[in-house]
Structures are given as structure tokens and as C-alpha cells.
Amino acid sequence: MAATIRPLGLSAEQPAEDRPKRDELVRVYVWELPVRAVHWLIFFSMIVLSVTGYYLHNPFFIVRGQAAFTLATMRFIHEVTAFVFSMAFVVRIYWFFVGNVYARWKAFVPVTRRQRRGLREMLKYYLFLRWVAPQEVGHNPLAAGMYLLVYLLFLVQILTGFALYEWVLGTEPLRTMFGWLPRLINIQYLRETHYFLMFISFAFTIHHVYSALLVAIEEANGLMGSIFSGHKFVPAKVVEQDAAEIEQDAAPNGEPAK
């Protein structure tokens, strides 16, 4: 008996109407170059910051006779990478206001009926109340909300990090920009918060990679490759519906067209 070949991520029991056909998929440019560049800068910065930050907390190797030099080198790498991470964060915040419709801040806050519907449908998928994940051109509303929360945590990480940096150096303009934090919150609490957020970043990264792989397989939409190329493969009807609903959401007075 010949084997039945099915598209990746689809099963024999899946309803036919839920199966996107390969010839219905269209190539859509979703993630602009600044979004992709910032994504990878933040990713690699987090790795370096985590390794060096943990070393500053608990030196796990010492070069014989050069303990102070090794610690100073790790601190220097941590500080330089922190500036790279912060600049990438600033660029992403800027792109919240000048990027395409999939990168702007409105895509991360479920303020429209389209987004709230997508949020409900995605929750149903994770709660096993629907068979397949709803198709989205950009981020699904649930993921977008999580990313917004992660960016807020990044902001806290940056503020506490520079507050600790200012505590050591005590120079301008750092004192003006971040010196208020140690006066507001005990420096030890700032240090613990900064350290604890590193583990939150670990958890998010693991879940992020798992979810991206899951959606890429389930939807067969090239999601993993899109963070390199910027393009996803989405059913034509989803692209058309998404464009129509975005146009409705942008109608005068902020009200969807009747």
C-alpha cells in the first residue's frame, strides 16, 4: 500500500476545511530588516549578558594568578553588551511607531475586535478547544501581548542594570539618568531584581523557541525562516481578510466600518 503524503503539521483526522492547501499560500513580507536585526541583537546579547552576569554573581572559573583580571574582563564584556542590548531595545521602541502594520505598537495591544477575536481563538487552541491554531499574518494577539510584557521586563532589566552601573561609577550623566532608582529602592533589591530577571529571560527564551517551532510546524508557514528572510507563507484568503479588517479598524473615528 502506498504511503499517504500530507503537508507537515497536518493529520488525517484534521477537518478538510482547516487544511491550508500549498497552492493557496502566498509569500508575504512581514518582518522588516530593523525588526529582524534587533531580534538577533537582543538574542545574542541576552546570551552574553547571562553568561557574564552569572559569572559576576558566582565566578565559576578562575585563571590562576589572574583572578582580578578575569573578573574585570567579564565585567567589561557585560557592560559593553549591555549598551548593545539597550540600543537594540531603543531601536525596537522607535520601530513601534514607524514600522509596518505588523511592527507598530497597535499590533501588540488587543484594542480592536479583530485582535480580541484572535486572542480568544488562540486561547482556545492552547486550551485544546480547537483543532488548529488560527492563521495570522503577523503575531497572533496572544503572542503579541506576551512580547509587550517581555519588553516591559527588558526595560526593568535595563533600568536596574544601569542603576547598578551608576552605583559603582557615580558619574554624570548616569547619576542624573539612573541615580534616582537607588534612592527609591534599596540597592540590594535592585541587584536581586536584575539577577532574577535573568532567569525569567531563560524561561521566555525556551518557551519562545518551542512556540515558534510548534506554530511553524502546525501552520507550515515558514515562521522559523521568516526571522531571517522577513517573509512568511500565509493562505491568500487570510491575507485578504487581514488587510480588509486592518482597513476597517483604521476607519474614521477609529470605528470599524459597518
Write the layout of secondary structure elements.
Elements: E1 25-29, H1 33-57, H2 67-98, H3 113-126, H4 141-169, H5 174-178, H6 180-184, H7 187-219, H8 223-229, E2 231-235, H9 236-249
Antiparallel strand pairs: 1-2
Helix pairs in contact: 1-2, 2-4, 4-7
What does this structure look like?
The protein has a two-stranded antiparallel ribbon. The longest helix is centred in the last third of the chain and has 33 residues, at 187-219. α4 packs antiparallel against α7 (187-219). It has 9 helices and 2 strands. It is mostly helical and 258 residues long. It has a domain at 24-33 and 93-251. The radius of gyration is 22 Å and the shape is elongated. The chain is 64% helix and 4% strand.
| CA gyration radius, whole angstroms | 22 Å
Number of helices, where a helix is a run of at least 4 consecutive DSSP H or I residues = 9
- Describe the global form: elongated
Total number of beta strands: 2
Strand content: under 5%
Instruction: Please describe the biggest sheet, giving its number of strands, its sense, and whether it closes into a barrel.
Output: 2 strands, antiparallel
Strand order of the largest sheet: 1-2
Order of helices and strands: EHHHHHHHHEH
User: Helix/strand-derived class?
Assistant: mainly alpha
Q: What level of helicity do the residues show?
A: 55-70%
Distance between the termini: 54 Å
User: For this entry, what is the oligomeric state of its chains?
Assistant: single chain
* pLDDT averaged over residues: 83
Low-confidence stretches: 1-14, 16-20
